[in-house]
Amino acid sequence: MGRGKIEMKRIEDATRRQVTFSKRRAGFLKKAHELAVLCDAQQMVMEITRLRKEIDQLEAGLRRQTGEDLSSVATVDELSQLQLQLESSLSKVHARKDELMSQQLEDMRRMVHYSLIVVAVVVFADEW
């Protein structure tokens, strides 16, 4: 009995997304290597190597941007640039949070309004 098929969609949680990427990357590279061996495709091996290097560079950049690997940031200017990027990201997060909270507040107001209407109708019906 195998695992059920999962729906392919973006993983919203950054930590879970990174873990899933790391696990699947190894499997993908293994399958690509096996295909290269089976088909005697030297070009495929070179492409795998290029992709592996590109992925490693992207992961290093991501770690640097999230502040996990600041040892590679050499200058005050680079740190200042990173700070500006983080502040920009934070302001976007705050704006989205405010938007969602406003939407929730409006939904709650609407629910209270409709509840009051229902109560008024029930009270009016009892009096009539």
TrEMBL record:
Listed name of the protein: MADS-box domain-containing protein
GO cellular component: nucleus
Primary location group: nucleus
Subcellular location: Nucleus
Pfam name, any one: K-box
Taxonomic source organism: Oryza barthii
Chain ranges of the K-box domain: 41-128
Keyword Transmembrane on entry: no
SMART domains found in the cross-reference section: MADS
Coiled coil (UniProt feature): 41-68
Occurrences of domain MADS-box (ranges): 1-46
Keywords of the record: Coiled coil, DNA-binding, Nucleus, Transcription, Transcription regulation
GO MF annotations, alphabetized: DNA binding; DNA-binding transcription factor activity; protein dimerization activity
Keyword Nucleotide-binding: no
